[in-house]
Write a structure and sequence with these properties.
Distance between the termini of chain A: 90 Å
Number of strands of chain B: 11
Strand content of chain A: under 5%
Order of helices and strands of chain A: HHHHHHHHHHHHHE
Radius of gyration of chain B: 19 Å
Oligomer: heterodimer
Strand order of the largest sheet of chain B: 5-6-7-3-8-9
């Protein structure tokens, strides 16, 4: 049994794939906490599609994939964030418009000019075959950079995620913080795209964070739990990919889905309520909204006894 | 702080028109008006998160301002405890973990607000009044000279509303200027030293006796109301029966 499990580690491509999948899973799990708590779960899906446009464009004009797709993805992320914060249209609508247009452009470019870069199928569904040593180092660098950004901006990111308006008036540079988050999100999607794939990368952002939210009520704990769950799903999913001969993105996401189902079953579904509002920032009413009096115009069934009439008339 | 001749709107239609208002040190002002009258926009202008289309907003340099938002605007499922939420006021530091001094300060503020025993509770587990006190604690950690509060008593029960008003009175006595918005004429506005009646424009300013009058209220809320005096305070009565009769007729 052990021999079967260790067998793929004889191959260098698999070792690189495992390292990338584990790092990618952990990285997406870490960033996914902020994305889901901001009610922007859909952004991972959208941004990966937007980056596909950059992937196609950089392939055609022979620009480095990371540079071309990275700039494209960051521009898309900043545009989405700006439109969302302006409150004119919702985040889902902004993501839908900007990213699907970019994805469509990418397909059109590849159809017209042909693909000169990484495999089209690998970009869509993920593959461990094409992982190079350079890919591993890029991902390591992005993981370290993301970790440093989150560590150094932990308090500001937390406040801006919880209550951006109050954070803004409390001295947090919310626009800068948002831009930083969008930067690391774009870089992370970029670095994980070839292993996990355009169509599945969103799940690696959302599932670990949702599972972690079901397990804890503390933000700091949610951060490391989500990172650990994401990394574990990456590790296990990559091994399953080899043994089942199924695209790596698929097995990584399915592993996450199984973890979600197990936690849901173990907690009896009670903690699923904690994940409410992960798709929107505000809720309609607080926990104990009932005011015995409420607004004056609805709260005076009888005039007070012994009151002195002061004004009025039929007006 | 002074707002002079300010006109402001999010789209073509102005939310505020030609508003002039001054908030002095140690003022305690309530802004009353119907939904959509521009109360929250007025606070945002004072906070500086929006800019006037016309007119000027003048702030005393380096004045410490804290803001308490409406409870309804917050995601109460967010994974933070009470102490973590209060500590958000100290977001300027790079180091993620709170220092011993910060922890002590949070404990002191929570103790003052009577929610020290709730420090490690998740924010969803609090009642409306406790949630409001938590937000006030977060604001106090900034040691504000001016406290701006948006509907601080909406969604809290009567006892908690009394507690919040007493607490704000104490803070004001210590020199903190306070401006709050409210719909609640009897439960909140009548208890405050100064009021501003707002409905896109400033309709009236003054003491509760000057502002809570049938004429001002009808101009502000667009509905006839009667005002009684009870234990030395104005009490507002709406004319719901008459509206109902008119509707059925």
């Amino acid at each position: 049994m052990i021999d079967v499990l260790l067998d793929p580690f004889r191959y260098a491509f698999f070792v690189k794939g495992v390292i990338v999948a584990t790092l990618a899973g952990g990285l997406c799990g870490l960033i996914g906490v902020y994305i889901t708590l901001r009610g922007m779960s859909y952004i991972g899906h959208g941004l990966s599609h937007a980056i596909f446009g950059g992937f196609a464009a950089s392939s055609i004009i022979n620009v480095n994939y990371y540079l071309g797709a990275g700039v494209w993805g960051l521009a898309s992320a900043l545009a989405i964030n700006r439109v969302t914060r302006s409150r004119r249209i919702g985040a889902d609508a902004a993501i839908g418009v900007i990213t699907t247009a970019s994805f469509a452009l990418g397909i059109a470019l590849l159809t017209i000019f042909g693909n000169k870069g990484p495999s089209f199928d690998a970009a869509l569904f993920g593959s461990i075959i094409g992982v190079s040593v350079a890919d591993v180092w890029v991902l390591v660098a992005i993981t370290l950079f993301t970790g440093a950004v989150i560590f150094c901006n932990y308090r500001a990111l937390l406040f801006a995620t919880f209550d951006p308006e109050v954070a803004d008036v409390s001295g947090v540079k919310v626009a800068r913080t948002d831009a930083l988050l969008m930067l690391v999100l774009s870089l992370s999607i970029l670095a994980t795209l070839t292993v996990i794939g355009v169509t599945l990368v969103a799940a690696t952002l959302v599932i670990p964070a949702v599972v972690a939210r079901m397990l804890t009520n503390r933000f700091s704990r949610m951060l490391w739990l989500s990172t650990a769950i994401g990394a574990t799903c990456g590790l296990v999913g990559m091994n399953l990919s080899y043994h089942l001969d199924v695209p790596s993105g698929t097995t990584i996401v399915l592993t996450g889905a199984v973890v979600f189902a197990v936690v849901l079953a173990a907690t009896g579904g009670r903690r699923l309520q904690r994940t409410a509002q992960l798709d929107s920032h505000a809720e309609p009413a607080p926990a104990n909204p009932t005011s015995a009096v409420g607004p004056a115009l609805r709260s005076q069934p009888d005039p007070p006894t012994g009151a002195n009439y002061r004004g009025g008339g039929d007006g | 702080m002074r707002i002079s001749g300010v006109t402001f709107g999010y789209d073509a239609e102005p939310v505020l028109e030609d508003v002039t208002l001054t908030v002095n040190a140690s003022d305690f002002v309530g802004v009353v008006g119907p939904s959509g009258s521009g109360k929250t926009s007025l606070l945002r202008l004072l906070l500086g998160t929006v800019r006037p289309q016309q007119g000027t907003v003048t702030r005393t340099p380096a004045v410490a301002v804290a803001y308490v938002p409406q409870l309804e605007t917050v995601n109460w499922n967010f994974p933070v405890t009470v102490s973590e939420c209060v500590l958000m006021s100290r977001s300027g530091r790079t180091w993620p973990w709170p220092t011993r001094a910060e922890r002590a300060e949070v404990a002191r503020v929570l103790d003052r607000l009577g929610i020290a025993d709730l420090a490690e509770r998740h924010i969803r587990e609090l009642s409306g009044g406790q949630q409001q006190r938590m937000f006030i604690a977060r604001a106090l950690l900034r040691r504000p000279q001016l406290l701006l509060m948006d509907e601080p008593t909406t969604g809290v029960d009567v006892a908690s509303r009394h507690d919040v008003l007493h607490l704000l009175g104490d803070l004001n006595a210590e020199g903190v200027a306070i401006m709050l918005t409210t719909h609640d004429l009897n439960g909140v506005a009548a208890h405050l030293p100064q009021l501003v009646a707002l409905n896109r424009r400033v309709i009236a300013t003054g003491t509760p006796y000057e502002v809570i009058s049938p004429v001002v209220l009808e101009r502000t809320f667009g509905a006839p109301m009667d005002v009684l005096e009870h234990l030395g305070m104005p009490v507002v009565l709406d004319r719901y029966d008459r509206f109902q009769g008119r509707a059925s007729a």
